[in-house]
Input
Amino acid sequence: MKKYIPLFLMLFFASATVTLAQTDNISPARKQAIDSLALEKVKDLSKYISIIGSKETQFSEANRVMDRAEELFAPDAEMGVSSLNRKEIAYYKVRNYFERLMALNYDRVNITWYDIHYISDLERQPDGRYVGVITVYQRFEGTSIESGLNYRDTTKKDITIYVEKKQTQIAGRTIEFWDVMLGDIRVTETAA
Amino acid sequence: MRKIIIVITLLITSFGMAPGQGLFSPGSPKDDGRFAASTKQVNQFFRRFNAEESQDGSQRYYSGDALFRDRELRGKFISILFDNETSGISSQMKTEFMREVLSESQPQFLSFHEGEWFAEVLAVFQYKGRSENVTLFLKIQPEGLGYEWVIDKVVFQPFKDIFKKPSGTDKSFIHPLSHELGFMNLRKAFENSNTPESYTPKEYVPDYLTLFLYELKKGSIKFETISDVKFHFFQIDNWYFELDQFNRPGFNTGWLIGDLVKLKPGDKENILDFIYDQK
Output
């Protein structure tokens, strides 16, 4: 029996390590703070999208806002878009998506956001970063004066957020903080 | 310094006050309750099923909170988690399911990390110059410091068409005294038969996932897009249900239970065979 004791101890420590590593150690209070930070980034994105899409925005200003909007995203983030008629996802790089939005052929564009959102739990990835998803709803209205056509849709946007603990040096002291970056966005046209 | 603060303040307020621009700005359209009612994420399906969030979804309940997994709240939530428009799940079946899940002595909950659920993803790949549907089955597994989705199985019709093991008198075989000839008859077996799978054991099942990965690595299969996603749950004792996304007008939308089956012994294996469609 004695010869199994080291094995039991080894197994105990190994399983304890795995359990610790996979436990979500973000407290509810911390989660709430991270949610607020993430929501601020999503609010910024929603503002930028509204500005980029608006026909009143000058070209140079739209480009400046696109640069700012891109800074919210992790590298290689993509937009995956589907509509009611086409369930297959069309993929766009974030910058490309903004440029297509700016180039839409309407005389007047109005982009607004519904007063509702949903924030998922944060799940830990193999690399230790946390990932979550924030869902928001956007209403788009485009008017073409020449043809007199109005186009209107409501899209659901599921926005990936990456949450990472980072460190910085301030006055010689190491300060830890949580940083949030936006990732891939799934855009679904809703039947609402 | 004061000037900088004033400029920054003006900049921030000018963004915030632009009507109808950002999220929750004064011009935001009001949700009439449909988006609030919708089960917007699979995550929300778990939280509602377990009663781990408030009715409007704005507050997450944790162990120790008064309403955490509250039985009455769960009952209200679960009753709205069924597709009531197209699936035709009988009310008797729903009642029986809810009675078992909400049992006072042994309530059952869903767990994101504890297996017995998986995703079915309908994808489109380019193969031999054509767009072909590929069904991928993914499951959650622990990895490194967290978790990841991994591809567990794949169904691809062109692969299935390749492997059709004949049976009965149509099946070729290697006769039982071949060993005495040093298996010299393998030459005939391989050259004269286009169904070499005839020479495999009864329990042989082609490993389509390995084939699929091989073709991907060779570059013969290329990803195009995703066209549908659903989930299969076996976490509740003696029950199976399917989770589908319903994008339609009204209040009964989002991720909902689209199929519900009470399992008898052996049913789980039959349903899995049907889902995987591998035989």
Remarks:
- Residues 43-115+234-276 of chain B form one domain.
